[in-house]
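Consider the tokenized backbone below.
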């Protein structure tokens, strides 16, 4: 087929073939991903972008309508550095082709030139030797073409040359003997376009996957900011250039793509909660994505156990222990005034209480399906098996949601901790230690089932109003507690349901009750948790140490979602006993 004039259906089916070709290269692109950080997800991110275009873009004979549909889908599906650059390229195409029912070569060349400039402008500090370079060089076509077939054939040839040159342009690529992964993805996209233009077929014949690939020196690389952070906004009250200047000091790898109607921002930062707290001023946040690049590095390195360990954000464990044992986090969703935040990541306990000062409504939800699938699919590529330990099924739908996905993935086993907060954390840590002793999945599960039966949590709360609001305690009980100034000790029953374990009329009294509960059986180890109350937590820990003759394994702040239920000032102790206790 020869295309002289580009119409909407032409570009739709050509881009569809390009998308499918790129998706087929996903695993290879993940393997060679070492820039800007070696987090092994460029292929996954670009594939997600392409799959979103396949799912959401609508064909039309009108070129402008089709490119607008593709650009909007790309913005919805863009992930990671290369994905967002790609999306901004599509956005630039639309800006120049807007209103055109069809286009000749010269029209399209002008649109591509503008789109490439937009891609460069989206990045705070553009780097050559990346997808940007290949984008630019692929379309620096000086030869005269009268049809799109020969035009795209030339662009592919130039892209392949530019792709090979990336190895020499960046030291990290040269060191590992690879090309830039994002640039490789764009080149694959052009291969798919050319296949369609030559054959008229969008289904790409796939080559057999290469089994052996060169190992990369990823363990030598340093992540300067921990979290790859992204937001999708609508109704933005600043330009993309304004947003770049506002957030330029929040981290590195800043990219802003889109228009005021819809905009995506990407940044590497150590403080995603502060980023999202500030972002509220400039538009409505529709979507958030935060990847822990240190944990991604650990997953793709050879220095990890065969079993991957995952828990939800309700498990209260200090970051240093999560790092030590490579424990992966699935964040719960915290909804404040209809904006969904990622528990522990895009909202911290401190920023959550700042939000509460003006919030009209707040609630919690289990991890969403996309986050579950994306996280566990990534880990499945790097571990022989995966154990996911969740908050008590009676307290959340998390266990059920992950179990649904696990039905499609035989590598995954889901374990109901029947606990929350620090007591869930104790079970997760026991699993981690057992995994690092090279135990089998069966041995780990048997061990933590035994630990679960011997673990309890006792929480001293200042008020029941937050628990009443979230439905954890009945309204009648809450009203009575307020009238009597009740200061209860909250715990969980053997199935993970919440209960009032003891009743007192002062914090001093309920702390004494906690000490008495800890004497019911010998304690193996315990941890302290609190909600913005480190002084009271430390004082109670000193009393427990005097009673038991041992220090807490750790003292840590509870997650925002746990804080939402327990309220400010709550202090708890979670303990694993040497035998079962009531």
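A designed sequence for it:
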């Amino acid at each position: 087929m020869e295309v002289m004039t580009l119409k909407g259906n032409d570009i739709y089916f050509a881009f569809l073939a390009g998308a499918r070709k790129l998706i087929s290269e996903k695993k290879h692109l993940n393997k060679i991903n070492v820039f800007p950080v070696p987090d092994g997800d460029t292929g996954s991110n670009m594939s997600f972008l392409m799959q979103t275009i396949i799912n959401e873009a609508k064909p039309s004979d009108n070129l402008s309508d089709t490119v607008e549909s593709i650009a909007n889908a790309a913005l919805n599906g863009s992930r990671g550095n290369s994905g967002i650059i790609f999306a901004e390229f599509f956005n630039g195409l639309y800006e120049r082709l807007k209103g055109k029912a069809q286009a000749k070569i010269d029209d399209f060349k002008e649109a591509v030139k503008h789109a490439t400039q937009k891609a460069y402008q989206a990045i705070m500090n553009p780097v050559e030797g990346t997808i940007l370079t290949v984008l630019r060089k692929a379309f620096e076509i000086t030869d005269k073409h009268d049809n799109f077939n020969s035009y795209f054939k030339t662009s592919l040839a130039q892209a392949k040359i530019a792709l090979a040159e990336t190895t020499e342009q960046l030291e990290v690529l040269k060191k590992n003997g690879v090309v830039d992964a994002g640039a490789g993805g764009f080149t694959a996209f052009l291969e798919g376009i050319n296949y369609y233009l030559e054959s008229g077929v969008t289904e790409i014949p796939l080559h057999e996957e290469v089994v052996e690939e060169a190992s990369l020196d990823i363990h030598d690389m340093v992540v300067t900011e921990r979290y790859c952070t992204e937001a999708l906004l609508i109704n933005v009250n600043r330009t993309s250039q304004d947003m770049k200047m506002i957030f330029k000091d929040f981290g590195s790898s800043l990219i802003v793509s889109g228009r005021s109607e819809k905009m995506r921002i990407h940044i590497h930062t150590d403080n995603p909660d502060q980023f999202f707290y500030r972002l509220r001023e400039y538009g409505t946040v529709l979507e958030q994505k935060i990847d822990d690049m240190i944990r991604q590095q650990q997953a793709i390195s050879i220095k990890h156990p065969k079993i991957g360990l995952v828990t939800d954000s309700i498990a209260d464990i200090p970051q240093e222990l999560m790092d030590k044992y490579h424990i992966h986090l699935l964040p719960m969703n915290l909804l404040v005034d209809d904006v969904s935040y990622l528990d522990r990541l895009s909202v911290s306990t401190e920023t959550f209480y700042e939000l509460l000062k003006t919030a009209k409504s707040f609630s919690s939800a289990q991890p969403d399906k996309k986050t579950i699938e994306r996280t566990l699919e990534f880990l499945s590529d790097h571990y022989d098996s995966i154990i996911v330990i969740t908050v008590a099924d009676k307290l959340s739908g998390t266990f059920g949601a992950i179990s649904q996905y696990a039905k499609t993935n035989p590598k995954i086993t889901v374990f109901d901790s029947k606990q929350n907060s620090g007591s869930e954390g104790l079970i997760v840590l026991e699993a981690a230690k057992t995994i690092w002793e090279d135990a089998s999945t069966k041995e780990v599960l048997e061990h933590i089932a035994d630990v679960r039966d011997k673990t309890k949590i006792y929480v001293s709360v200042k008020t029941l109003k937050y628990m009443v609001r979230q439905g954890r305690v009945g309204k009648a009980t809450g009203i009575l507690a307020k009238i009597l100034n009740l200061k209860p000790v909250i715990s969980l029953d053997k199935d993970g349901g919440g209960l009032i374990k003891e009743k007192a009329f002062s914090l001093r009294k309920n702390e004494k009750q906690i000490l008495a509960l800890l004497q019911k059986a010998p304690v193996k180890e315990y941890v302290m948790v609190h909600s913005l109350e480190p002084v009271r937590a430390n004082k109670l820990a000193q009393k427990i140490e005097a009673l038991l003759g041992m220090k807490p394994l750790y003292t840590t702040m509870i997650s925002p979602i746990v804080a939402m239920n327990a309220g400010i000032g709550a202090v708890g102790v979670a303990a694993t006993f040497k035998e079962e206790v009531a």
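Residues 349 and 560 are 4 Å apart (CA to CA).
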